[in-house]
Structure formats: structure tokens, C-alpha cells
Specification:
- The complex is a heterodimer of chains A (453) and B (472).
- With 453 residues, chain A is of the alpha+beta class.
- Chain A contains 16 helices and 5 strands.
- Helices cover 36% and strands 16% of the residues of chain A.
- In chain A, a hairpin with a 7-residue loop joins strand 2 and strand 3.
- In chain A, helix 11 crosses helix 13 and helix 14 crosses helix 16.
- In chain B, 31% of the residues lie in helices and 40% in strands.
- Chain B is an alpha+beta fold.
- Classes of the chains: A alpha+beta (453), B alpha+beta (472).
- Chains A and B meet through helix 3 of A and strand 6, strand 7, strand 10, strand 11 and strand 12 of B.
Chain lengths: 453, 472
């Protein structure tokens, strides 16, 4: 996945105007001019009179990780450097703070002060030479963006039109800066991104009748497209072609593989839904290895979904005819275990019974056997499964496909599949807890490994 | 209208001879009561009872959006409370509402003369303590349903010191405040220290009365003017916010009519605010006040007016006139008595030689026209004051307006069958309303309906309230 970083946005002078507007509206969120009865030190709106960002902010990406964790889509570490910026604020304040403080005290205990009047003073605050250096972690989640600031280095020169207040305001600003970067900014960004990624927030909170509620639920289902036509120009055309090929390749109702027998997909690195059974059949598993011994059920109903379930069975016929090879089974299980655990050094817990040293020598031949354990596809027709083992897991298996594809088209629309993915793992765990695999311990029963390409 | 508990506190201070007019806090009281009088904002019913001579209680019910109430108890060990206060049926209206304050000149009010030596002060204090000067007042009030508790203790430590402790406590510990106020009276000065636990507010107040000494009083023309100067400094320790002000007050009487007038000038040096007021009783039944505010830094200005109209029952007018004619006779006699058989002439006859006596008589004779004049003036002034205090008024209208705020404040207070009633409203003329009025004046052919429409929206009274008080 690639993206273009448009520096022009920052180069353009309209950026200054835009930030002036944004700051003004953000600062005045709490100010309510009609609420004059409640005494407040602020007497008018805060107006951002001047902003100046003469240099382009340096935006250095130190680390970018896409789709590493199940929780976030993109994780990045950035370094932001802003230099020589200037912001000027203007507002009107009440001069007599004693009057402001005493306005709330009850009449009974309020000392009566003579001519305790106040006047309104316009105040101009100028922040010059703002230099910000921060290292921030950025997580793009399914429907939100969270940023945390780690190493903030902020420096500015403060200039106030009222000299008496300069020191106190400066002191308070420095104190509150910590809070701003730790708490205020991340929450603001998070809330903003949430409103950006989903359109739920536009729905009014007022009670609505059932008909409109249906409408609302419909709205939540429909993904919001954040990119409009103007944005498409800025996307990498090569990527777009790839994406469109993936999308168009799915525009078929065929369940049979479209490409050749041994190739998984027409596009390298991609797995198509209709070729999934091939992929699964190549996975190391007992049922695949002994697929020749399978019972062919009388009811020949096409169900490709079965493949996600019967991946580690020993067919009954094998046991009856005593065709199984213990070493083969061990190898298959080893292979499965290696796939499932990220740590290669971790050895599976296994109860071993040493009979003689010959068996140990046999084990050392492992690499050769491994290759054999990968089943060779002999039959073209779809293998079937025992009737009593059919468990409908349609909902579970679908997210698997999302995972198989390196660039699912949905990601552009940023529909969340997080929750579904989690449930897939969880349900399979429950399902697998009831029975043993091969010669493994009960305590180390493992779920089917996550398939990785 | 004075609340019953405030009335009791005032009676307590009167019975213990503590002059509240000498407080710096009350230096602008006259103009405040005429212009910034409080207006009831809700329906309030208050019934008070003097169960014994020393205990009082009040039940109050307020209906404003929801019904709430309060219950207050008060105990004082002051002696002659019975004489100082009456039930609402027998109380005069002037007593139960705040109005123009007749500031007594310093010397005439104070029993301890500043010219006298320490020994006399000692005898005086011993005398006062014998009478029981260590009086105190305890007050408690609980509000329902907010469960806010108010408590107050006023304690006269000695004739020159008074301590007031007020505290307020709310049930959820959100607001627990204690306010300690210590007043010290020495010679012409009254000093005051205040501490409030609310943002650790500390304050110091000071007032000085410039006055002519009593000896001067005996020689000069009758002079009832008083001139006071004071100042205050405040500092909230927790927020380090300061406050200060300084004021002048001059009270005098018009020489020929005896009508009192008060001038004040206050200045807040920190915020450059100057406020001057002029209040006068133009006749027996009317009082006018004007106040001008100006800020040196922001050049904001404000001009406010206030007036009072006292009204009598038309039935009682004839009766009053009869009393008035009767009053003329003793008053004339009073003028003569000062000159003819003045005490100092008879007293001086005892220890002074014949020659000196003759000289004194000559002096008295030469000064007699001015002394006569003085007596006349004093009589007029005292008569005016007495007459106002004894007059049986039934109701009073109060109006106040301010040019900057564009508002009209109206308050009616009266007595009806032993009940004290107070009703008031505050009408705001918003800018749109003013504009529409100007438009209406300029274009007279404009349809009237449109004007009425705007007026109805903006001319609604901002607040309206009624208070009923009954006490026994």
C-alpha cells in the first residue's frame, strides 16, 4: 500500500487561513455569548488575528507498519518538527477578578465592597517563534485514529499586551502544556477521526420512530467513502489497477478454479475464494494426507465450506485397515505446530516414551518425510466428507478469506472486520477443545493454525 | 423591605448603641437604597414571631419554580429589645424598609466625648458594663430542601469592640465558608478587619469622622453637618486578587428648610472607577437621588436616578394636620428655651464672679441673634426628622432607572392590615426595543401593529416578585 504525501497543502498560504479558522472555532467552543448572566472572566470570543507558519513542517516517518496487529490497520511512528510559527490571539477579559470571584458567593457571607466595579480590557497574546518537536505514535484503527505524543519539545516566546499578567499567564501555559499533549490533543484527534470514518455522529440523538430507525440502521451499514474524485488523482495508479483486477476477478459465480491446477491464483500473492479448497488441501493435515481413504458419501452435495473443518481428521478407513504410519502423523503434527507458533524455538510439549534408540534415529530423518507429508493432489473431483462431521460454519469461514487476501478491497472503505476475526478464533477453540489430535497432550490442544501466505 | 431577622439585628444594635452608619460598608447606603434597591424575584411569605423578649423565630416559604422554605431562630440577651422593635402591625413603614439615612453628627450620637480624658472613659465603660454591655446575638437558619445552614454570632466584647462571625454550610460540603469581622471603635475612627475563608479573603476597612468638637458646638452656629472619609483594602490570598476603594461622605441640611442631603464620592484607584452620588429629601414625602459613574480607563459612564414617593392614607390626612398644628406650639417654646434659660447661664452663676458674670451676659446678649438663629435651625432640622419618623405612611413607591442599562426598576411597599407587602419588577428595554421606539418616533406613519409586536417581545418584565411579611 502506498500513498502520496501532498506537501503543497502545507506550502500553500491558504493553510494559514485554514488553521486560523479552525483555531478560532475550537477556542470558542465553550464560549456562549447569551450566557452573560453567569459571570465569566472572558467577555468576548477569542479571535485568532494572525497565524504564520513560514517553514514547511517536517514530517518524518520513522516507522510504518501496515496490518501487523489485529487491532490496528496502520501503525506508525512519526517525527513532527514545526519551526518559527506564530499565533496571535485577541480577546476581552474582565479586569476585576475579585468581582468575578465574589459573584458566586451567597449574599449572606458576601462582604459589601464599595465601587467594586470592573472594566473590560482587550488583551492580545502573541506566541512567537513556536518550535515544536514531537515524536508521535499513530494508530489507524478500523474506525478511528489515535495519536499519542511521546517526546514533546515545545518552545515559544510569549508576549502579552498587559505586562502584569504576562508572568502568570506564561506560568499557567507551561503547566497546562503537559495536559494538552497528553490528554487534550489525542482525544480531540480521536473524536475528529471517529466522526470522519463513520457517519454515525451525524444522526441526531432525538428519539425517532421505528421507520426512521430502520433507515438509520441502513445508514450504519453502508460504508462511508472518504475518498472523493479529487482524491483519486492522488492515489497511485498502479495500485488502483491491481485493486480493480482483484475486484473484477471476484465478479464470477464459478466455484471451480479459473486458473491452472497447481497455481493458486491468477494474481500472485492473492487467493481467490473459488481456489480456497486447493489451498486448504495443500495444508499439512491428516485428512489431506489420507484423502484417498476417505469415504465417499452417498449424498454428493457440493459444499466447499467443509474444507475449513475437516482439516485434521484421520479417516475411519485408515484406522480400520491399519494403514497409518505413526511417523507421518508426528511429522504432520509437528508441521502444524510450527505453523501455528510464531516462535520457532519453542518445542511442543510431548510425552515421549523411549523404547530403544532406533526410534530416535528415525526421527532425525524428519526433513525428508516432511516433504512427503505434503499431499499430492490426485483427484480432480471435489473430495467429500463424512455426513456426521458436517458443521455449518459459513459465518466463520468468510472472514478467513478477508485474511487471505493481502489487499482486500474493503479496506479502502475501512469496514471493520476486527470483531469477526476474533470470533473466528474463539469459536474454533471451543470446537476443538473436545477432542485430541494425534499423540499430543490434552493440555496443549491447539486451534487450527492461522493460515499465512 | 427589611427581613425580620435584619430588623432584629438592627434593633439589637440600637439597643446596644452601636452605630451602623459609621461603618465604611454603609458609607453609600443612602444612594444604594434609593437606586440599587433589591427587588423580590419570587413569591415569598414570611411569618415571624417573638416568642419571648429574647427569642425570635421566622418561617419563610418561597415559591419560585419550586417551593422552598427556611426556618430561622434568633436569640439575644440584649435588654430593651421590647422597646426597640414592634410587630408588623404597630411598626411604622419607615422603620421596616430601607430609606434615606439620617446620618447623625458624630458628637451628638456618641456618649463618649473625644475631648474628655481617659478617666471619664473609664467611668463610662464601667457604667456601660454595669448595664450589661457584653451583649450577644445568636442566629441560625436552615433552608429546605437545599439544607444550607446559616449561622451568625454578634458579640459586643466591650463598648468599643464588636465581633461578628458568620458561617455558611451546605450539606454536600461544596460551600463551607466562615466570615469573621471585627470592628473597633476608637475616638473618631472605626476600624474593621474581615477574613473570609472563601478564597481566603482578607480585608481592612477604616473610616474617620471629621467633626467639630462639642465645645465648638456650643459657641458656633448650629452645625449638623458631618464629614466622613474612609477606605478599604482587600486581598484574596488564594488567588492574589486585590481590591480597594476610598470614599468621602458629606451630610448636611438645607439651612432654611432643614431638609437633609447627602453627597458621596467614591474612587477605586485600582480600576479607575469614580462614583459620585447626590441624594436629597426634597420634601417630606419625596426623596431623589442621582448617581454618576465614570471609569477613567475605559471611559465608561453611567447615570442613574432613583426616587421615592411616600404616601399616606387620604382618610388620615386630616387627622395628621390636626396633630401638626398642635406640634407647632411646643416647638416654638423649644426655640426660646435654648436662649432664655440656657443651662450654662444658670450654672455659671454659682462659681463665677460678678464681673465675669456680667461679661458673660454681655457676650450672651451680643450673640443672642445668632444663637437664636441656631436654635431655629436646629429646631427646623429636628422637627423635619421627627415628623418623618412619626408620620403614618401607608405605602411607598420606588423608581430607579439607569441610562446604560436601559432599565426601569419599580418597587411598591406598603402596609395592609398588619401585613407588610412588597412587590416589584425590573423592566429591561433592550436595544431592539429602543431602536423600534426611535423608528416609531421618526416614521409616524408606520403601522402601529408592527411596533406593538416588537414591544411585546422585548418589553416583558425581566423579574417580578411579591413578598408578604407578618410578624407579632
Amino acid at each position: 500500500m502506498s500513498f502520496k504525501f501532498n506537501e503543497g497543502v502545507f506550502r500553500d498560504n491558504s493553510f494559514n487561513e485554514k488553521i486560523k479558522e479552525k483555531l478560532t472555532s475550537a477556542l470558542n467552543k465553550n464560549f456562549n455569548p447569551t450566557n452573560q448572566e453567569k459571570f465569566n472572566i472572558l467577555k468576548s470570543e477569542i479571535i485568532v488575528t494572525k497565524t504564520n507558519f513560514p517553514t514547511i513542517p517536517k514530517f518524518e516517518i520513522l516507522d510504518l507498519d501496515i496490518n501487523t496487529q489485529p487491532r490496528s490497520l496502520v501503525k506508525g511512528i512519526c517525527k513532527i518538527i514545526i519551526k518559527d510559527a506564530m499565533v496571535q490571539l485577541q480577546t476581552v477579559i474582565e479586569s476585576n477578578l475579585l468581582l468575578v470571584n465574589m459573584k458566586d458567593t451567597p449574599y449572606f457571607i458576601k462582604p459589601n465592597l464599595i465601587v467594586n466595579n470592573s472594566l473590560r480590557i482587550p488583551i492580545t497574546m502573541t506566541f512567537k517563534g513556536i518550535s515544536l518537536e514531537a515524536i508521535s505514535n499513530i494508530f489507524v484503527k478500523n474506525n478511528s485514529l489515535s495519536i499519542s505524543f511521546n517526546d514533546v519539545n515545545l518552545d515559544f516566546k510569549f508576549d502579552c499586551s498587559i505586562n502584569i499578567l504576562q508572568n502568570t499567564i506564561e506560568k499557567r501555559l507551561k503547566d497546562s502544556m503537559h495536559l494538552l499533549f497528553k490528554d487534550v490533543l489525542p482525544t480531540v484527534l480521536f473524536n475528529m477521526s471517529q466522526s470522519w470514518f463513520t457517519n454515525n455522529h451525524t444522526e441526531p440523538n432525538t428519539p425517532i420512530d421505528s421507520s426512521s430507525q430502520v433507515l438509520e440502521t441502513n445508514n450504519t451499514v453502508t460504508p462511508r467513502i472518504i475518498f472523493d474524485d479529487s482524491d483519486l488523482i492522488e492515489l497511485s495508479p498502479k495500485n488502483m489497477i491491481r485493486l480493480s483486477t482483484i475486484v473484477s476477478s471476484r465478479h464470477t459465480l464459478s466455484l471451480h478454479g479459473t486458473s491452472g491446477l497447481h497455481s493458486m491464483a491468477s494474481i500472485p500473492g492473492c487467493l481467490e475464494k473459488q481456489n480456497l479448497y486447493r489451498f486448504i488441501s495443500r495444508m499439512p493435515s491428516l485428512s489431506n494426507y489420507y484423502s484417498a481413504y476417505r469415504n465417499i458419501p452417498t449424498n454428493t452435495e457440493l459444499n466447499t465450506m467443509q474444507y475449513s473443518n475437516d482439516n485434521n481428521y484421520l479417516p475411519e478407513r485408515v484406522l480400520k485397515e491399519k494403514k497409518y504410519d505413526l511417523n507421518q502423523i508426528i511429522d504432520i503434527q509437528n508441521k502444524l505446530y510450527e505453523r501455528s507458533t510464531a516462535d520457532e524455538n519453542e518445542k511442543p510439549k510431548r510425552r515421549t516414551i523411549k523404547l530403544n534408540k532406533k526410534k530416535k534415529n528415525q526421527k532425525q530423518k524428519k526433513p525428508e518425510i516432511v516433504r512427503q507429508s505434503t499431499p499430492i493432489f490426485e483427484k480432480l473431483n471435489l473430495p467429500k466428507m463424512d455426513e456426521d462431521e458436517i458443521i455449518p460454519v459459513v459465518a466463520q469461514s468468510t472472514p478467513l478469506f478477508h485474511k487471505e487476501k493481502s489487499i482486500p478491497p474493503q479496506k479502502i472503505n475501512s469496514i471493520g472486520t476486527k470483531s469477526k476475526r476474533i470470533s473466528f478464533v474463539g469459536i474454533n477453540n471451543v470446537y476443538n477443545n473436545g477432542w485430541k489430535w494425534g499423540n499430543e497432550d490434552n493440555t496443549t490442544v491447539l486451534p487450527p493454525p492461522p493460515y499465512r501466505l | 423591605m427589611l427581613e425580620f431577622m435584619d430588623y432584629v439585628v438592627r434593633a439589637f444594635e440600637r439597643s446596644t448603641h452601636w452605630n451602623t452608619d459609621n461603618n465604611y460598608e454603609n458609607i453609600t447606603a443612602t444612594s444604594d437604597t434609593l437606586i440599587n434597591f433589591p427587588i423580590p424575584t419570587s413569591f415569598k411569605f414570611q411569618t415571624s414571631d417573638r416568642s419571648t423578649n429574647n427569642t425570635f423565630n421566622t418561617l419563610e416559604i418561597t415559591a419560585h419554580k419550586q417551593i422552598s422554605g427556611s426556618l430561622a431562630y434568633l436569640y439575644t440577651d440584649a435588654e430593651n429589645m421590647g422597646n426597640c422593635m414592634k410587630g408588623s402591625e404597630f411598626r411604622t413603614l419607615q422603620d421596616s424598609i430601607e430609606t434615606y439615612r439620617h446620618i447623625q453628627p458624630f458628637f451628638s450620637k456618641q456618649p463618649s466625648d473625644i475631648s474628655e480624658n481617659n478617666a471619664s472613659i473609664h467611668t463610662l465603660t464601667s457604667k456601660l458594663s454595669k448595664h450589661g454591655m457584653h451583649k450577644s446575638l445568636y442566629y441560625g437558619r436552615i433552608y429546605y430542601p437545599t439544607s444550607i445552614l446559616e449561622a451568625m454570632i454578634i458579640k459586643r466584647i466591650n463598648p468599643f469592640n464588636q465581633l461578628t462571625i458568620k458561617s455558611l454550610s451546605s450539606v454536600n460540603n461544596r460551600l463551607n465558608v466562615i466570615l469573621i469581622n471585627w470592628q473597633k471603635y476608637k475616638n473618631e475612627n472605626l476600624q474593621e478587619l474581615t477574613f473570609s475563608s472563601d478564597s481566603s479573603l482578607c480585608g481592612y476597612r477604616f473610616i474617620h469622622n471629621f467633626t467639630s468638637s462639642p465645645s465648638k458646638f456650643n459657641n458656633a452656629l448650629y452645625n449638623n453637618a458631618s464629614f466622613s472619609m474612609g477606605g478599604e483594602i482587600w486581598l484574596a490570598l488564594s488567588t492574589l486578587t486585590p481590591g480597594c476603594s476610598t470614599s468621602l461622605r458629606y451630610c448636611t441640611h438645607a439651612a432654611n428648610t432643614g431638609r437633609p442631603l447627602t453627597l458621596t464620592l467614591s474612587w477605586n484607584p485600582l480600576f479607575g472607577h469614580i462614583s459620585s452620588s447626590y441624594s436629597a429629601k426634597t420634601s417630606m414625602n419625596t426623596t431623589f437621588a442621582a448617581k454618576y459613574d465614570f471609569n477613567l480607563y475605559s471611559t465608561d459612564s453611567n447615570l442613574s436616578f432613583g426616587c421615592e414617593f411616600w404616601r399616606k392614607n387620604p382618610v388620615q390626612k386630616g387627622y395628621d394636620n390636626a396633630i401638626k398644628s398642635q406640634m407647632e406650639e411646643p416647638h416654638k417654646y423649644h426655640v426660646k428655651s435654648i436662649f432664655d434659660d440656657a443651662d450654662y447661664l444658670t450654672g455659671s452663676r454659682n462659681g463665677i464672679s460678678e464681673h465675669q458674670k456680667k461679661l458673660l451676659n454681655d457676650v450672651a446678649h451680643t450673640l443672642s441673634p445668632s444663637l437664636e438663629q441656631m436654635g431655629k435651625e436646629k429646631a427646623i432640622i429636628e422637627e423635619f426628622e421627627d415628623k418623618f419618623n412619626t408620620e403614618n405612611y401607608t405605602n411607598v413607591w420606588k423608581f430607579a432607572t439607569s441610562l446604560r442599562d436601559h432599565n426601569l426598576r419599580v418597587l411598591w411597599e406598603g402596609k395592609f392590615k398588619g401585613f407588610l407587602l412588597s412587590a416589584g419588577t425590573d423592566i429591561f428595554f433592550t436595544k431592539e426595543y429602543m431602536d423600534s421606539v426611535i423608528q416609531y418616533i421618526n416614521q409616524e406613519d408606520k403601522p402601529a401593529s408592527q411596533f406593538n409586536n416588537t414591544a411585546r417581545i422585548t418589553n416583558a418584565p425581566a423579574s417580578f416578585g411579591l413578598t408578604i411579611q407578618y410578624s407579632t
